[in-house]
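Q: Convert this sequence to structure tokens.
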Amino acid sequence: MIFVEDKEIVIPGDILADEEYNSGRGTFKENNKVCSSLVGLVAIRDKKISVIPLQSKYIPKRGDVVIGEVTDIRFSMWNLDINSPYSGFLPASDVFGKEKRELNRTFDVGDVLFLRVVDVDEVKKVKLGLKGRGLGKFRGGILINITPTKVPRLIGKKGSMINMIKDETRCEVIVGQNGVVWVKGDPSMERVAEKVINMIEDQAHTSGLTDRVRDMLAKLLGKELEETETEPETESEDLETESEDLETESEDLETESEDLETESEDLETEPETESEEVKLEVSEETNDSEESKEDEVD
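A:
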């Protein structure tokens, strides 16, 4: 027997179900009852019941794609803030190989990078890398932070929610699994995208979100959106089931990683968007310097 409904908000100690149900993430069993261990939303899947926290910190996992900001430069690595209790580091060897280079000429403090989590050791040291399509340095744009558990809702089923925002604002939008979102476009459209993304985070646990997002975009963008809107109503109904994806079990994260791979292809195709191309950029800087010296001699 179950005592709560799917997507119902619960608090620690609330009894969710009897012994017929299995205890999932955010729950515990006591006296043959499944109870909540935190404040969050109930997620019921078959005979497994879990609680998704309303607020949580990002816990890095190998294979995740994240957005990080360079906070410090050391002799052989960059340290990055990845919106987590644990900081990440990018080894210089992953960028330059065995060559010796000045690290701050490639990535400086304050630069924002799109990276992959390569490894997480037993003390939660997070090794990051730039090997992969679309990974590299961002230029311009704004950053928006959301609760990491709301990332699947922001992306939507098969990327539908985030693609709607991108199509209507004509902004580039990249979502990191650590809850950091990069948006670049016309400044006025960046602000529109930011408002919509914040609304999705606030109302991620509610039904009918897709229609409200569409209405909000129509209100913020005016008649132009209403005239170009062509999405079928049936798609809106299908997207409502996306709230089930809020549970961040490992199998869900793997699925979202594939979605984010697709998103990363929309990143600017500048030299720094791949680790190999980062090396090319460094090489070009050296060539530019040599050409400048030759011009001075001439």
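Residues 275-297 form the longest helix (23 residues).
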